[in-house]
Amino acid sequence: MNRHEVRDYSALPWVVFTDPQVAGVGLSEREAQAAGVDYETSVLPLSEVPRALVGRDTRGFIKLLRDPATDRLLGARIVAPEGGELVMELSLALRYEIPVSELARRFHPYLTWSEAVKLAALGFTKDVRQLSCCAV
Predict the structure, then answer these.
(1) Which of 92, 122, 108 is nearest to 51 (CA)?
(2) N or C: which end of the chain has fewer CB within 10 A?
(3) Would you state the pLDDT for residue 80?
(4) pTM of the entire predicted model
(5) What DSSP state is assigned to residue 110?
(6) How would you label 26-45 residue by residue, b for 16+ Cβ within 10 Å and e otherwise?
């Protein structure tokens, strides 16, 4: 890489190793508002994530921001016991412009933390509280 080449850090994931962990990628709501970016959010409490229920630790949430016109992910914030494990999929979705609806359609193994990403993505179009464990 040329030392004068501009690097793009817009999809750089980050994690704060607290308990629960705090992780994110892309824009926050505040940053989107300051930039005048149109966005909508889906917030999934961990009380709706089967893996969190089984582990008896439902502290936290996953928040996704997307562009409603393009269905592209703009950013994500995660507060969860293993939040750092979830941020890379979202980083790739942001970097490669994978539509949020595509994240919702992909198979995420039941009873894994990654299923939370799918559920949060589904939250833009469905009330995940109304779904059975196997209907997603």
Answers:
(1) 108
(2) N
(3) 97
(4) 0.92
(5) T
(6) bbeeeebeeeeeebebbebe
Q: 40: which residues sit within 8 A by CB, 6+ positions away?
A: 65, 66, 68, 124
For residue 15, the SS3 value is: strand
User: Which residues partner with 40 through β-bridges?
Assistant: 66
Looking at residue 18, the DSSP 8-state letter turns out to be S
Q: How confident is the model over 39-50, as pLDDT tens digits?
A: 999 999 999 999
User: Residue 52 in contact with residue 80, Cβ under 8 Å?
Assistant: yes
- The residue written with tokens 């992910």 in the block is 73
The pLDDT score that the predictor gives to residue 4 is 78
Per the CB < 8 A criterion, the answer to whether 78 and 87 are in contact is yes
